[in-house]
C-alpha cells in the first residue's frame, strides 16, 4: 500500500512539475509576443526633465566618429546618465568619448561627469572565422549580461559594430522578463549603401530595434521598415 | 575644389593615408615609378605617405634632382594638418578618412583594398564616386586615374546632418519638440 501512495505522489509531483513548466513557457511566449508588439511603439509624452539612462555602444574606425556626430545633436540633459561601452581591443573609441564628455563638463561647468566608460569582450574580431566566432560571441554575451545587469539602460544607441548585437539581445530579454523596458535605436553606418551589416540585418529581421535608421535611399527601398535619414557625416 | 599652394615656391603635396590599417599594396604602388612620374607630370612636387601598420617601406627622396620628393611616417594622432596642406589626397576607403578629407574640400582619390574580406568599404567609395565627390581607383589602375583625373569636375560634398535622427529619437521617446 505504501508503494502505491508513493507512486501516486511522484506522479502528482511530476505532473505538477510538467504543468509548471508549460505554464512558464506559456508566460514567456506571451511576454515575447507582448514585447514584439510593443517594439517600435513610441513612448508616451515625457517632460525634458525626465532624463533617460542611455547606453552608447562604440565601435572602431568610422563607427565612433558617426556616433559622436549623433551625440553632438542630442540634448545631453535628456540622455543621462550615459554609459559608453567599447570593445576591449579598441583603444581609440573610449578616449574619444572621454574627450567629448570632458568638453561637455567644461562648457557647462558641472562638477563630476554623468558618464561611465566600460569595455566588453568582442563577439568577433575583423577577419575572424565565423566558426570560432560562435564561442567568442558566447563569452561576449555573458560579459554583456553582466554589464547590462549593472546598467539597465532605458535607451540604447548603436550603429553597427558586432559588439552591439549581444547588448541589444540582452536589452530585448530584459524587456521580456520585465527587468527594464528600453528603447533601442540602431543607425546603420554610412559605409553601408546597398547592403546592411550583419548586426544591422539581424536586428532588423528579428525586429529587436525600436527604430532602425539608414543613411542611403537604396537601403530604405530594400528594408521598408527602416527610416531614411540621409548622411550623418 | 580648393587646392592649397604652400607659400614655398608652389609646393604641391600629395598626401597618402591608410588610416589605422595595413595597406601595403597602396603604399607600394604609390612608391612605384609609374605613379610618381604621373604625379610629377600633373604638377605635384611632394609625396607624403602615412603608411599605418604596413611593412613595405617607401624610398625617401629629397627631390633636389627634380624628381618627386618622397617622405613617409607610420601614424599621427591627427592627420588634419597634413590633409589641410595637401593639394591631392590618396586614401584607403575608410569612411573616417573619406569624410574628413571631403569636409576639408580636398580633391580625393580613394583606393579600395582588394585584400579585405567582405569589402563593404567599396560600396561607399563607389557611391561617392558616382556622385562625383571623389575618384575611385584600384592599386593597379591608380596611375591611369591620376593621368585622366579632372579635379575641377569634382562636386564639393555638403556635410551631413544628424539632426533628423535626433528629432526622430526625441519624438519616439516622447520628448517635446525643440
Automatic annotation (TrEMBL), chain B:
Residue ranges occupied by any Glycosyl transferase family 28 C-terminal domain in the UniProt entry: 13-169
GO cellular component: UDP-N-acetylglucosamine transferase complex
Domain of life of the source: Eukaryota
Record GO terms (molecular function): hexosyltransferase activity
Pfam families on file: Glyco_tran_28_C
Single biological process term from Gene Ontology: dolichol-linked oligosaccharide biosynthetic process
Listed InterPro entries: Glyco_trans_28_C, UDP-GlcNAc_transferase
Protein name in the entry: Glycosyltransferase family protein 28 isoform 2
Species, as recorded: Hibiscus syriacus
Amino acid at each position: 500500500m505504501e508503494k502505491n501512495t508513493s507512486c501516486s505522489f511522484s506522479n502528482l509531483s511530476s505532473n505538477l512539475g510538467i504543468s509548471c513548466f508549460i505554464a512558464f513557457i506559456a508566460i514567456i511566449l506571451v511576454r515575447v509576443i507582448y514585447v514584439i508588439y510593443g517594439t517600435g511603439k513610441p513612448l508616451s509624452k515625457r517632460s525634458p526633465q525626465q532624463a533617460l539612462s542611455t547606453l552608447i555602444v562604440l565601435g572602431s574606425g568610422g563607427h565612433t566618429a558617426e556616433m559622436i556626430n549623433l551625440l553632438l545633436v542630442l540634448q545631453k540633459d535628456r540622455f543621462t546618465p550615459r554609459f559608453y561601452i567599447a570593445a576591449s581591443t579598441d583603444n581609440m573609441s573610449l578616449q574619444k568619448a572621454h574627450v567629448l564628455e570632458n568638453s561637455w563638463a567644461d562648457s557647462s561647468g558641472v562638477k563630476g561627469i554623468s558618464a561611465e566608460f566600460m569595455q566588453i569582450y568582442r563577439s568577433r574580431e575583423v577577419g575572424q572565422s565565423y566558426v570560432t566566432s560562435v564561442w567568442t560571441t558566447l563569452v561576449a554575451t555573458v560579459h554583456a549580461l553582466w554589464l547590462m545587469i549593472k546598467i539597465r539602460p532605458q535607451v540604447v544607441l548603436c550603429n553597427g559594430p558586432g559588439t552591439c548585437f549581444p547588448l541589444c539581445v540582452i536589452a530585448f530579454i530584459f524587456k521580456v522578463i520585465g527587468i527594464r523596458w528600453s528603447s533601442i535605436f540602431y543607425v546603420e553606418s554610412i559605409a553601408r549603401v546597398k547592403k546592411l551589416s550583419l548586426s544591422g540585418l539581424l536586428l532588423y529581421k528579428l525586429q529587436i530595434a525600436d527604430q532602425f535608421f539608414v543613411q542611403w535611399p537604396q537601403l530604405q527601398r530594400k528594408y521598408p521598415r527602416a527610416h531614411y535619414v540621409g548622411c550623418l557625416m | 575644389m580648393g587646392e592649397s599652394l604652400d607659400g614655398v615656391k608652389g609646393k604641391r603635396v600629395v598626401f597618402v593615408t591608410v588610416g589605422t590599417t595595413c595597406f601595403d599594396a597602396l603604399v607600394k604602388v604609390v612608391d612605384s615609378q609609374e605613379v610618381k612620374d604621373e604625379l610629377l607630370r600633373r604638377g605635384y612636387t611632394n609625396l607624403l605617405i602615412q603608411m599605418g601598420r604596413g611593412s613595405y617601406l617607401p624610398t625617401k627622396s629629397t627631390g633636389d634632382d627634380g624628381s618627386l620628393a618622397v617622405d613617409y611616417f607610420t601614424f599621427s594622432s591627427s592627420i588634419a594638418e597634413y590633409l589641410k596642406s595637401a593639394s591631392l589626397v590618396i586614401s584607403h576607403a575608410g569612411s573616417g578618412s573619406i569624410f574628413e578629407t571631403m569636409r576639408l574640400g580636398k580633391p580625393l582619390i580613394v583606393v579600395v583594398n582588394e585584400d579585405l574580406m567582405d569589402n563593404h568599404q567599396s560600396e561607399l567609395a563607389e557611391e561617392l564616386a558616382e556622385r562625383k565627390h571623389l575618384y575611385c581607383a584600384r592599386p593597379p589602375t591608380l596611375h591611369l586615374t591620376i593621368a585622366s583625373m579632372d579635379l575641377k569636375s569634382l562636386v564639393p560634398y555638403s556635410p551631413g546632418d544628424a539632426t533628423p535622427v535626433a528629432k526622430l529619437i526625441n519624438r519616439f521617446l516622447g520628448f517635446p519638440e525643440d
